[in-house]
Fold this sequence. Notes:
Elements: E1 4-9, H1 15-26, E2 31-36, H2 47-55, H3 70-74, E3 78-81, H4 84-93, E4 101-103, H5 121-142, H6 144-147
Parallel strand pairs: 1-2, 1-3, 3-4
Helix pairs in contact: 1-5, 2-5
EC number: 3.1.3.48
Enzyme class: hydrolase
Pfam family, one: LMWPc
Amino acid sequence: MFDSILVVCTGNICRSPIGERLLRQRVPGKRITSAGIFGLEGSPADVGAREVAWRHGISLEGHRARRLTPQLMRESDLILVMEPAHLRFISAMAPEIRGKTLLFGQWLEPQDIPDPYRKSHEAFDYVFGQLGKASQEWAYRLSQKGMKR
């Protein structure tokens, strides 16, 4: 049903690369990629994102930021964004895509996953924890067990 998932944040250097790698780990067999609304084309993941991921056994090696495009969105079965502003951006950019766009933190309280860019190690740790919990919830819901609820 959802074979291709696109994870979206603002710059595609902090939240979405981590979310992408966590989902790849937890939902094998799916095509999972990421992009940024204002993607910093070609940039590696932010050093804070790389460090927090590394501490949790995840590599962001090889990640290169890219900008969100209507084509990327059309090629995806499910688009997961970090905050309501991203939902609004996508709705304005490609209204027909809105129906397959949800918050990455859909199953959390609060649902928004804040941007840790240029913030403390603690901010990155918090965001990693939120992305970890959210990716576990998505993995369950995307599995056959979760679909039978």
